[in-house]
Structure formats: structure tokens, C-alpha cells
Amino acid sequence: MLKSFRNLALGLIAATGLAASAARADDQVRIGLLCDVTGPVANFVPPMLDAAKLVVAQVNAQGGILGGKQLVTVVADTQGAPQTAVDAANKLVNAEHVPIVVGPLLSGTVLASAQSVIVPAGVVQISPSATTPVLTTLKDRDWVFRVVPSDAYQGPVLARLLIDKGFKRVALTYANDDYAVGIAGTFRTAYKKLGGVLTADLQHDEKKKTFRTELATLAKNKPQALVLIAFAGASGVTMVKEALEGGFFTQFVGTDSLRDKILIEQVGEQNLKGIFFTSPSSPPGTPSMEAFETAYSAAYQTTKDKLFIQQVYDATFLAALAIQKAGSLDRAKIRAALRQISGPGGDVIKPGDWKKAIDLIAAGKKIDYQGASGDCNFDKNGDVAGVIGHFVIEEGSFKEVGLVTP
Amino acid sequence: MDTGTILYLISLATMAGLYAILTLGLDLQWGFAGLFNAGVAGFFAIGAYATSILTTPGSEDRLGGFDLPIPLGLGAGVLLSAGLGYAVARICLRLKSDYLAIATIGIAEILRLILRNEAWMTGGNRGIAGIPRPFEDMDQPWGELCFLLVVAGFVVLLYVGIERAWHSPWGRVMRAIRENEEAAEAAGKDVIAFRTHVFTLGAAVMGLAGGLMAHYLKFIGPDATEPILTTFLAWVMLIAGGSGNNRGAILGAALIWIIWSGTELLTQRLPSDWQTRSSYIRVFLIGLLLQIVLQRFSRGLLPEKPPRPGGGKPG
Question: Does residue A218 lie within any of the structural domains?
């Protein structure tokens, strides 16, 4: 028994060592795809890997990368948990030596892999879908990026819209859930910075049946409006109703959580004059989005009901562009290059424009990648701006009247 | 070997060491005393969350953080975990073995749901980020190596401590109770008290594993305390290594973690058309290898060797 154990152990160690130091072909450039392939979001992953494959196919069909080398991706599976995410990131960054990592998808696996492995190693990481506000303030020494806006992005946008419309004194109330607390926090900071005054700032328990006491407190000191960050179905509609009945407020402002059909149905459009909302919106049919739709549908039938494929595509394409721009696999050069190729400013590159991009880079021109999911312009925290719309109620339904930027 | 490969091997050894601590905790409870604890995840989570809340810088999204030194956080995690172990032991140890298993599963699940839902305290689904790791300011790979040494130090310390306990009169009583409860009781031993001791000790060790893991990952969230990566894995490691044998527990942890992690290096060599499938092939490979290990070494790689009376050499 001992002998067979020794054989087993030796075999395993040899296999691991062999695999870890397997020869890497010099005619390939490898991008790490750190992905939650198995685990809680397993269902969403295959179409996303298709999106990454589409980038690989386009790059290799249009002249390859770094002077004709083949682009390939190496997938590592986080299994959806922090322990295994750290392990998988270690394999990509240290055993496989990838110069840049795309992924993972979940906020938890991103935070663990970034803090524990990827940032200390000094490798660029681009998450396609982690929306946690924690990533914005993470001490990542500028190695972590994402192509999806933070949950908290709506706060500053809401603040800007209020100031632009002349609301300088408002009362703020928000529900006690993750979403509302997050948006309220960033709204508060941004609004005060823009010179607004919060006459009241109150968190409420969304499960309460009545809010008359809270509303009486909120209505003190004559605010111009009530900013209500809560789900219509939870405390939102009740608060609006009671505020109208008690004569506390007539002017309301909300976010996407309040922008719900039941608000109009239960309160009535005639009682909601002047109300407006901010809400995430899709970019109007941009040429970039159409280019992606066409290419993806041609290769994989349809883009319908597939989540975050645009973001995965953009993250992978940006990674390839950054390597090309850096001209080498040097990790620090790739980080500098990522900001240079994502804009703003320069010749516009759409999804699939690989040949055009390498020619422009070769000619020393500045390029600006406009992605399928948005413009992919990173701010100083490595975040992208979301597309947030300004909505009002018209003829019994919600209508988008414009886009807002903070 | 280049730095990258060394870093990967260090991470492999660190994770194996962390799981070895967890497995040693389980070995105390199951290998020594025959107490079936199916709620390893709960004790692991208490240790992890306690030290995370205590050692992180302040945050308005949750309780704390209190920015305390890491040893203090780890110590508090161990104490809390031991306290929970004591409470569970007091409530459940009168139950017969299979009922104890059910009770511990229940308690671990309740804890996990509390940690997931009481966001004011734990950050809920967002978890806790920015947990400090000792030596993280040092250059690679020295910081990683120092952390590995700390983990290895704990493993050695626990191994020596538990071995001594195993050979002491206390350890003999434990084995007596495990093999024949009535006989031990007839010999005048307070079975419940002995069991409470060992269960509490085991829980404390599991809390330590959780705490160290949180500092290593620098992030803790509800997904990190899923039973598959805590309870299930610790059990597989213990059974594969050989329950009742501390060296076996450590060896089992190392072997199973190498299988868990190393298989991916093999499946990554598959052609890229197999990208999605390769991750599932790996999960299949893990299962297959576990089967082989458990089938071939049904008593564990290093089976238990109880010391002979009169001071025979330990197994």
C-alpha cells in the first residue's frame, strides 16, 4: 500500500510540476480569462466565453497580435468562491505568466483575486461585470479596471441633475438595503460638493407600514423636494402616498428603483406633477453596438438573453489592444497602454476593427476604443461611467428625455 | 525555476497548510473523540469574520472595522469559535452521533445565513474587503514566503501539541470513550466533560484556520464559507489522509489540495475549443482522483496507529 501511495504522490507532484513549467510557445500571446465557469453563475458563462473567442478569431484573422503572433486565451475557473478564485488567479498570473487578466465576474471573486494575487503581482485586471462600489476605493495601485459602471454611479448623476434643475435644498431619505445605502452615500457627497443643502438625511426601514413620523421630520426647514431612494414595491409608493395625503411634499425625485409602473397605477399621474427620475439606460444604438451585434450573431446565432457578453467582448478587445500598443508583454507598459487606447480622444475603433487599430498604432496615431457596452473611458479609479437617463412621466408612462453625466 | 512558478508553489503550500489546520481541528473531534461534526463551515466562518471585522480599517457599510493588530484579531476569532464550540457541545453532545451531525449542520447553516443577511455587521453579500495580510509590504516572493512560514509554524505547533495530547492520559481517555462509551463511563470518566473539552478545542482550531484564511485571501464573503470548500473538503482531506493520525491529516490536506488546484493546469492544456468543457472535465477529474484515493486507501493514506501502552513509538 505504501508503495502505491508513493507512486501516486510522485506521479501527482511530477504532473503538477510538469504542467506548471510546460513550455510556452513563443508564437503565441496569451490573455488570461479568470472566469466563474462552474459555481453559482455557471449558466451565464458559456456565451461570455464565446464573446472572448470572437475577439480571438477577429484578431487572428486580421493580422494577429505583436507582429503576426497568434492570440490565445487561457481560462482559469474560480468556481465562484474566494479560495478557489485566489488559487485560479495564482495559476494564471504565476504559473501561466499571462500579461493581463480579464475577469472574474462576481464581486467577491474579483476582490479576493485582485487583492491577494493580481495587484501584488502587478498585472492589469479588467472585470466585465463586478458592480460593487468597493472596487472604486480599493487600494489597487491602478491595476484593477472594469467596463461596467459601479452600483454607486447613479448618486453623482442624480446630484448633478438636481442642481441643473435648480433644486438646491432637498430632503433625502433612503431604504436600509445595499442598493439604496450605496446610492445615498455617493449622492450625499456629490450633492454637497456641488453646493446643494440636505435639509434632512434619514434612513428608513423599508418594511414599516407607515412613515408619517419620518415624513414630518423630513418636511422641516422647507426643502424644495423629497429625494426618495427606495423600491416602489417596498416603501416607495407608501411614502409618496402618505406625503401627498399629509401635505408634506408635492415634489418627488427618485432613482430606477422608484421608476416602477405601480407608482403611476397606485398614486395617479395627476398627483405626480414634476416628478423625475434617474435610471440606467442603454446607449442609443451606437455603431459600436451594431458592429458587435452583427459579428456575434453571425458566429453564435443571437445576442438575445445573454448577459454581459458586450462587456466580456470589450474587456478582451481592450486587453488585446493594450498588449499591441505596449508592443511587448511588459506588465507595467500594458497598464499605461490601456489608458492610451481607451480614449477619450483619437481615431475611433469599433468592435472588430483590429486591422485598422494595428495600422493606426503602427503609425503612432492615438486611438479611442468605443465598445459595445459603452465608450470604455476609464476614470482615475479604473471605473467607467454608466449611461444614466433622465426620465419623467408622460401620458401614463415613463419617458426618457435625455442622458445625464455627473 | 522562475519567480512565477515559485510563487505558485508557495500559494499551493499555503493553501494546503491552511487546510491542514482545518483538518487537524476536525481530526481532534472525529479522529480522537469520534464526534461527527458536519458544521465545520460555521466555526471556520466565525474565526474568519471575527478577525476580519477587528483588523480592517473603519467602514460605514458594516460593523467596525476596528483596525486592531492581526494577532489580536486572530485570537478573538479563536476565542469566539471556541465559545461557539462550547455552546454547541453543551447543547448537542448528549445527542447520539448521527443526531450530533444533524445539529451541527443546522447550526452551521444558521450561522451562514446570519452572516449573509445581517449586512450591518458583516457587509452581507458584499463581504469584507481590504483585510490586512501580514508581511504584504515586502517584495514578492518574500512576503508570500513569510506568510507561508507563519502558516507552517502553526501547523507544526498544532501537530506537536495534539500529538502530546494524544499520548497523554487525556488522549487515552478520549480513545476509550470513542471505542466504548459505557466502559469508559463505568471506569469513572465523565464522558460529557471530556467530549466538551475536545469539541471546544477542535472548534478553536477551526476558527484559527478560518482567521488565517481570511488574512490570506484578504477578502471574506458568504461564498467563502460554502460547505463544499470548508466542511466537505476538510472531511475528504481527513478521510483520505487517515483519521486519528495527525500526520495523515496534514498529508491528506496537502494531497487533496494539490489535486484540487493542480488538475486545472492539466485541463488548461486542452484545445481552446474545449474552454467551457475543460473546467467541467477538471471537476470530473477531481471527483475521479478523490474516488481513487478513497478506494485504494480506505483506511486513509496513513492509518491510525494507537500507541501501545508502555510508551511504544507513536505511529
Answer: yes
- A11 to chain B, any CB pair closer than 8 A? The answer is no
Give the per-residue pLDDT at A5.
54
Q: Which of A8, A15, A56 sits opposite B266 (nearest CB)?
A: A15
Whether A255 and A362 map to the same domain: the answer is: no
Q: How many CB pairs under 8 A join A and B?
A: 166
What is the Cα–Cα distance from B267 to B285, expressed in whole angstroms? Answer: 9
* Residues paired with residue A228 on neighbouring β-strands, in sequence order: A173, A254
Q: Are residues A66 and A142 in the same domain?
A: yes
Q: Do A95 and B5 touch (CB under 8 A)?
A: yes
**A residues 12-41 closer than 8 Å to B (CB):** 12-13, 15-16, 19-22, 33, 35, 37-38, 40
- Mean pLDDT across the stretch B36-42? 93
Same domain, A269 and A163: yes
Judged by a CB distance cut-off of 8 A, whether residue B124 touches chain A is: yes
At A264-283, the pLDDT tens digits run 999 998 999 899 999 877 66
Q: How many domains does the structure of chain A reveal?
A: 2
Q: Given this model, what pLDDT does residue A4 score?
A: 55
**Residues near A266 by Cβ (< 8 Å), separated by ≥ 6?**
A237, A241
Mean pLDDT of A288-310: 90
Report yes or no on A250 lying in a domain: yes
The rounded distance, in Å, linking the Cα atoms of A173 and A159 is 14
A257, with CB counted inside 10 A (0-12, 13-18, 19+), is: buried
What ipTM, to 2 d.p.?
0.91
In a domain, A190, yes or no: yes
**Which residue in chain B is spatially nearest to A80 when comparing CA positions?**
B223
Low-confidence winner among A73-82, A306-315, B262-271 (lowest mean pLDDT) = B262-271
Q: How many Å lie between the alpha carbon of A401 and the closest alpha carbon of chain B?
A: 33
Looking at the complex, does the CB of residue A325 fall below 8 Å from at least one CB of chain B? Answer: no
* pLDDT at residue A23, as a whole number: 44
In chain B, the residue whose alpha carbon lies closest to the alpha carbon of A47 is B276
Query: In CATH, what number is assigned to the domain containing residue A165?
Result: 3.40.50.2300
Most confidently modeled range among A36-40, A213-217, B108-112: A213-217
The verdict on a CB contact (< 8 Å) between B259 and A46 is no
Please give the pLDDT value at position A63: 93
Nearest CA in chain B to A136: B129
Q: Are A226 and A202 in contact (CB under 8 A)?
A: no
Same domain for A217 and A117, yes or no, is: no
Is A86 in CB contact (< 8 Å) with chain B? yes
Nearest by Cα to B71 from B90, B94, B58, B54: B54
A139 and A165 part of one domain: no
> Can you give the residue range of the structural domain that contains A269?
153-274
Query: Is residue A395 assigned to a domain?
Result: no
Mark whether A242 and A297 lie in a shared domain: no
Q: What is the dihedral of CA A373, A376, A379, A381, to 10 degrees?
A: 70
